[in-house]
Design brief:
- The complex is a heterodimer.
- Chain A is 64% helix and 6% strand.
- By secondary structure, chain A is mainly α.
- In chain A, helix 6 packs antiparallel against helix 8, helix 6 (117-144) packs parallel to helix 9 and helix 6 (117-144) crosses helix 22.
- Chain B is α/β, with parallel strands linked by helices.
- Chain B folds into 2 domains: 26-169, Glutaredoxin (3-Layer(aba) Sandwich); 201-325, no CATH class.
- In chain B, helix 10 (215-230) runs antiparallel to helix 12.
- The radius of gyration of chain B is 33 Å and the shape is elongated.
- The chains are: A mainly alpha, B alpha/beta.
- At the A-B interface, helix 15, helix 19, helix 20, helix 21 and helix 22 of A face helix 9, helix 10, helix 11, helix 12 and helix 13 of B.
Chain lengths: 780, 338
Amino acid sequence: MATQESPPPGTSSAMRNAFGTVLSALILLLIGVLAFSIRLFSVIKYESVIHEFDPYFNYRVTQFLSKNGIYEFWNWFDDRTWYPLGRVIGGTVYPGLTLTAGTIWWALNAINIPLSVETVCVFTAPVFSAFASWATYLLTKEVKGSGAGLAAAALLAMVPSYISRSVAGSYDNEAVAIFALIFTFYLYIKTLNTGSLFYATLNALTYFYMVCSWGGYTFIINLIPMHVLLCIVTGRYSPRLYIAYAPLVVLGTLLAALVPVVGFNAVLTSEHFASFLVFIIIHVVALVYYIKGILSPKMFKVAVTLVVSIGLVVCLIVVAVLVALVASSPTGGWSGRSLSLLDPTYASKYIPIIASVSEHQPPTWPSYFMDINVLAFLVPAGIIACFSPLSDASSFVVLYIVMSVYFSGVMVRLMLVLAPAACIMSGIALSQAFDVFTASIKYQLGRSSNSKDDAEDNTSTNNAPKDDSSSGKTDKGEEVAKERSSKKGKKKEREPADKPSVKSKIAKKRALVLPLEASIVALLLLIMLGAFYVIHCVWAAAEAYSAPSIVLTSQSRDGLHVFDDFRESYAWLSHNTDVDDKVASWWDYGYQTTAMANRTVIVDNNTWNNTHIATVGTAMSSPEKAAWEIFNSLDVKYVLVVFGGLIGYPSDDINKFLWMVRIGGGVFPHIKEADYLRDGQYRIDSEATPTMLNCLMYKLSYYRFVETDGKAYDRVRRTEIGKKNFKLTHFEEVFTSHHWMVRIYKLKPQKNRIRGRAKKLKLKTSSGLDSKPAKKNPWI
Amino acid sequence: MAVHTTLPYRFFLSIALLSITAVSEPTDLTTELVSLRSSSESGVIRLNDVSKFITSVATPRPYSLIIFFNSIDLNSNPLQNFRREFGFVSASFIANNNNRSDVTNKLFFCEIDSSDSESFHRFGIQSLPQICLVDPSMENLRHHERGMMEEADVDGTAESVAEFVESRTKLTVGPIHRPPLLSKTQIGVIASLIAISAPFLIKKFLKGETFLHDSRFWQYGAVLVYFFSVSGTMHNIINSIPMYLRDPEDSNRLVFFYEEPEIQLGAEALSVGLLYTGVGLLLAYVTDALVRVRNVNEQRVAMVLVMVVSFLAVKRVVYLNNWKTGYQIQMYWPSSWQ
């Protein structure tokens, strides 16, 4: 609020404003530092590495971009993955993150700061978190003034939900997308408040950046139309609304269609239809307002009937066309994920693959406590505060929180979208509470020092005399505010959005006070709440969300154990195998293998081809010989399995094995889940079924396992394994990592069938022999 | 019911039945069935007289009967839904073979209610829902197993019944016609109501007098949505979780809180949601409403109350969260303090 009205220079209030601005800037800088540094626990506790799975792919793409330039990147056909199909990377990724990090790397190198691509990638997310908190400041400032803005920015800097996706090393789309999301909303509100086409254009550009970055852009292109509709429905239409919305739809859609992965989806899929419908509606409404402006009230009544009926007919036709379009597609033109948002029971009924992913589950209440912590308590107060008074901007943030909290209730993953809204709301609530309490304290202190003499008289139950005068002021202040808003009602076109004036607020502050000691206690309680939030966030950042999952640690009595098996084995692959060798593993490890070992993989984490994944699943579930034939037909040289039985690492391949069976069986019906289960139970001990004990995954995981402790006791399944001593006929072990977490096997070359003839044949013809069994389809 | 079981009555009944069946020819029976069918709306005949149409007719009978065993007294929703579906099959069968009496007169859809315990006994019906096809050659109803619809196929849909009929009788039922959700007249009435009220609504709307223009409506709505979302109601709806459980060891004790972070009970969710929302609303009450109160003592008492309640609520949620998830947040005190 301090910077909104600029009194003549030289006065004390001008000094105060200047001081306030400097202080705000300093606080914002500190918030940025906080947002950046709270995300560095992963680097301090572990090291500067890329985390998990998807970030490795993004990292590899960034490496390619920085090495070959943007045009090569755009046309990149990656033959290292999905062998033998390959993947068109340029057309199937959201390029925002990669381009951002690539640009940062390029700029740093241009000014002679020689950082590696990996370092830039690791620190992109923390840097953008600082940007996101600044964007939150801007957005909240537009809604409720800078006090609320600073509070919201500070809260966002350390909200656990956002930290979980943006610690150093977590190089994923969400890292930049959340910033883009908040900034787009800020520019929308800014346009709405100012009616400036400049901001509208900027808004379209940031929307474009958001589309480049994350599939979650559909949230924006549905939320903003909803807000526009809400404004129209509640009678808040204004030309500013038109300027904020129409350019965004037109420019934004055109720009979105430029992103290859979106393309014509920007106009063809149902996710975008709401924006077009509202686009039509706002034009009809704009027409009505225009006519209202140029006609006399009587004429207008006549015209309304005409225009509204024509408008209704046009709308009906458009709706009919849309319905017909939507109805012609089997899912109604909505993607499965969007549908499960609209109808929460949809996924659990029809799409088990979406329902099975843990981040698509609906959350329980502890999730909220973990991810937004005490903000969950403050948000309702923020919502109430936004309604007094309700402006275009505050109605937008209310809509934002309502939508995002509903969506987060359906899918735990969308907690990430809720987090900024919760921070904004809590910032508003906190700022208002602090305002009231500190003003009360200040007022009461001032009053008590002023009226020391007649203090005894004033200790009675009523503080009427002062209140009367001040309430007079309040009423006056309120009147002023009312007058202003009613003026705005008439001349909405030219005025910026209605904000409570500083004068009236000061008047209110003086009048509306609470008892001194209660205010002090309340203030202390609020500070305690804030302190609890900070502690929780630091704990979450340090303990819960900073494990890179590529390096594991475990704390035991004799100190810290580090399990670096993944990198050990990827390094082994890259040093000991041929560049063109193909490595088969379950899809989880595809991205890592291509990025860290630089070897061709059969399937990876971009699970676009179910049949291909099913093929690998079938191979893993088949007996050795059949599996060998499948892998051989895919030119696979090495098979990589992840095994946690020795050290008790639970997310290993044996635990994921039933999914391999299910997915394999979904395409190749001879794989039946029941064959792997004993009485419906999944087990690998002596009670396990023969199919289970003879499948490739079992054998590759437990080969020579008995040699470790003599009993072959699996620490994850907590049992002795069923079949301990066996030999491999078609595979040979070539590498097992230090803690046995990664085991790599090589496919044995095919045996000569006829000894006498084979001797005579030359190498060329023998390779011809190799291809003979390929006539029979080995997968069936 | 007791009356029916008395011996003289039974005797009289069977005599009477015999006399009827003695005179009725199979073709007459078909005509009678057709007339019975036409008197029923969906074409399902209420079969009150099993012996007349089944047991007393010499095989092969000129028709098959498909019998739905119903029990209105049971008052079971799924059963009545299934009965309705059965009616759709019947109606669709008649409608799809409208002009071919040779087909429609081959198969009749019937229903026997549990009040007719004798027929239930004859068929040996032990459980519901049950559907039985009496084909022309079936003589002994006791050996009706081959005509029974298999339990796995009885899934309550019209399609399953149609499939069953088609597989057993070699007659085609054709596509099932379900009546639309709203009948044509209903749609017409609704459409005309909308058309009539539209000008008034639009007028009201333009004047800004609807509830949509009342910010309180939106305020309460927003808080309500928030309350339901943070309490994880969607989780409970999707997984259809009950409000509370009974303690397996002591059936009189009710379990309201479940010690597992991935699962929550309905009552638990709502109470925590209430705590989440309540604290915020109390804060809003203090900063928005309480400041306007004139009386200082009133303010003081209210604030103390609010602060105590909020403090306890937050403490309770923190305690519940730690209990449920097993997490203990590290306080980062200096090591010398511990």
